[in-house]
Amino acid sequence: MLKDSPYKFDQLGKCKTLLMLFFNSSLRTRLSTEKAALQLGMDVITLNVNDAWKLELEDGTTMNLDTSEHIKEAAQVVSQYADIIAVRAFPGLENRKDDEKEIIINSFKKYVSIPLVNLESSTEHPLQALTDAITIEELKTKKRPKVVLSWAPHPKALPQAVANSFATMMQQLDVDFCITHPKGYELNSQITKDTPIHYDQKEALKDADFVYVKNWSSYSDYGKILSQDPDWMLTQYKLAQAKFMHCLPVRRNVVVTDEVLDSEQSIVIQQAKNRTFAAQAVLKELLKEL
Ligand code: SN0
Predict the structure, then answer these.
(1) What's the CA-to-centroid distance between 160 and ligand 1, angstroms?
(2) Which residue in 42, 178, 225, 276 has a CA-CA distance of 20 to 30 Å to 152?
């Protein structure tokens, strides 16, 4: 409905401000969420937090080193400038317990009383998962499509957030869902639950309708790169008749071949377009409550 008439609710956000805080890089999340807010009639302020004062996150520290401002003050201050706040904060990938505390997102939750939107935290990327659900719903040609989440190699250690949220979302849809990755790349079992896991990528990809490719670093050997095996890269042969999905940005010819990305079977551009409508659906619900 929002896709057909994006400005239908352009009065809902009138005189309301969305404040977006980025602790990490962003292209799609920043622009699509801004577009979503503008279509709802909101004003938008965006801050790259790395341009502001270096924030202290721990409680009770003596701040005589390089952090200038505590997140306690910062969160309370900035929330006074907005009606909805949205935050991106990636994990450090060094200490699992620390990352799972979601200290940045949870500090905002604790110190502000306005709605808070997660723009990708240490363990979750919910707006991406909502986008992915919309995209599969739009493009599926059978009632219960087979959806495969496949690990792929990458030169950098990446978060598990996208894979976690995608798995959680697929468990809630009427899809035949499985995950494939090399041994040692098991995601948090509290998230994957009873989702089938295959160590044989070929077997997993058999008769797939949607193949979602994503790298993540090891969860058990936390933040480590255990494999860079190019045999896990997605090729046209392996994709067969399925549609190719990825949240982007994607490393060409490492994660997936040029041939797949440039083919008609790649739906990554439509996926990215849907980021706007996923964000708009969420902002619209929050605005109704204000
Ligand atoms: C992030 C991730 O969570 O995997 C954001 C995805 C939406 N991706 C990256 O950091 C990729 C960085 C790179 O150099 O390829």
Answers:
(1) 10
(2) 276
Residue whose CA lies nearest to ligand 1 atom number 14: 156
Tell me the per-residue pLDDT of 81-140, one tens digit each, with 9 for 90 and over: 999 999 999 999 999 999 999 999 999 999 998 999 999 999 999 999 999 999 999 999
CA distance 145 to 210: 8
CA–CA gap between residue 43 and residue 259 (Å, rounded): 41
The length of the chain, given as a count of residues: 290
Question: Pocket residues for ligand 1 (CB within 6 Å)?
Answer: 156, 158-159, 161-162, 247, 249, 251
Residue pLDDT, tens place only, 8-30: 999 999 999 999 999 999 999 99
Distance CA(151)–CA(187), nearest Å, equals 11
Give Cα 273 to chain centroid, integer Å. Answer: 14
- Amino acid identity, residue 272? A
Q: How far apart are CA 91 and CA 129, in angstroms?
A: 18
> Whose CA is closest to 211, among 185, 233, 182?
233
C-alpha span between 213 and 275 (Å, rounded): 18
Ligand 1 centroid to Cα of residue 145, in Å, is 27
Q: Taking CA 126 as the corner, what is the angle to CA 39 and CA 6, rounded to the nearest 5 degrees?
A: 15
**Secondary structure tally for the chain: helices H, strands E:** 11, 11
CA of 249 to the centre of ligand 1 (A): 6
State in Å: Cα 158 to ligand 1 middle. 6
